[in-house]
Amino acid sequence: MFLFVRQNPRWGAANTALVRWLPAEYEDGESEPKGWNPERLHNGFQLPPARTVSREIMTSASKWKDDSYSQLLVDWGQYISHDITLTPQSTSTDGSDVDCLKTCENVHPCFPIKSMVLMFLSPGCMPFFRSTSDCFVNFQSGIRQALQRQQLNAMTSFIDASAVYGHNQKLESFLRDLPGRNGKLAVNARFKDPKGRPYLPFVTKLPSACHQDLQGERVECFSAGDNRVSEGLPLTSLHTLWLREHNRIAEALKHINGHWSPEMIYQETRKIIGALHQIITLRDYAPKIIGPESFKHYIGPYRGYDPSVDPSIANVFAAAAFRFGHATISPILCRLNESFQEDERFPHLRLHNTLFSPWRIVKEGGIEPVLRGVIGSAASAVSADMLLADEVTERLVVLDTLKQMDLAALNLQRGRDHGLPGKILAESQICHSNAIRLSSSYQSDSNHSTPCLKKQTKKTHIICPSLCQQTVFLSDH
């Protein structure tokens, strides 16, 4: 069930370009991101490194809770974002002699994040791979075409449970229990939870890169319709729930409709799971994010299929706007027992100790302690003074490098990589307002207040004048 628009079959399809609401803003007008030439001035100022902006403006040592919402709201946002967006990154070398994991030079496809504060960084930068571009620019041959660099969305743009079933037939076939006769999804052949319930299957490429319990048997990365399934324990738990729900519904349909073929059972179950994804997202999630009145005004009740609407995901949404959820990430993962109290056997964990660690699911009580934790704990609140927890700006773990990373810096760098227009330019074009003119009094102009202005630090005045060049990720928070 790979959805498409009949008259425009590439609208919203997997592996098509993210759409633009505004033209891309590259330093050379075509493909080089802002900051590619560090000496270039923007509005008379050098663009600060993304890491500097993160440390001076974005990082918060503490977070307070918003009791209006549970942590599940945050984790569902991450899960559903993976259902509709995945921007592939260039490989480490991309056909050149440069290894992006080892260089601090801006050489395609490498766009490393410079850092004046070394801390855990060596040799003074964080590796960064540019997003894969659509096929009209060949950097190796030096060809420059008039078209601007565009980025791809590897997922379908529809809320269709592709995070469960995959976005291509090869992956879908791997995830199915074939040649089984029940229309079910494949389950883990080695492990079950304490009550005998199944886990997701492991990836086939072994050994996988996921972190391990050094005292026991290996537990590989899990496999699902989206390859980010093992990023965090709540995400893994949601993927596991949908695997089990598919198989539960498939079994019920087989019991009711004994004459159905395995393919019929599978496809009908998939339709139900896809519909549940849409219901949860549009009924329970989106109104809480944009507010019930905005939801009623801009979305409202379903009025039928409209073939004139392009459902493709916007570049600014994938690379910036929907990343607002990063500011709501809690630095602590709570795990609760059946009484919704802290589980003495499986205590709470610092976030960085949970990333890419599926062994904690298999060996530490299954998904139930995690799910109770995200349901029973409040989400983190967001304010100008408390943006991203230092767990994600100082201790973020990714699999392709041994270095700890900075999520805020990565987001800012990704916005530059994608050529997202700066906040003020975007506002002037979309809202038809006059562009804000920078002046020596800019820092004291309360009408143009930004998070960095509110901090009033001595270093801030160096950073703020060029913030109009920052992408909406920063200003949206």
Automatic annotation (TrEMBL):
The UniProt keyword set, sorted, is: Heme, Iron, Metal-binding
Q: Does the keyword Metal-binding apply?
A: yes
Q: What is the lineage of its organism?
A: Eukaryota, Metazoa, Chordata, Craniata, Vertebrata
> GO terms for molecular function, please?
heme binding; metal ion binding; peroxidase activity
Which parts of the sequence bind heme b? H326
Q: Does the record bear tRNA processing in its keywords?
A: no
Listed under GO biological process in this entry are:
response to oxidative stress
GO cellular component, alphabetical, reads: extracellular space
Name the InterPro entries for this protein.
Haem_peroxidase_animal, Haem_peroxidase_sf, Haem_peroxidase_sf_animal
- The record lists the organism as Haplochromis burtoni (Burton's mouthbrooder)
What name has this protein been given in UniProt?
A: Thyroid peroxidase
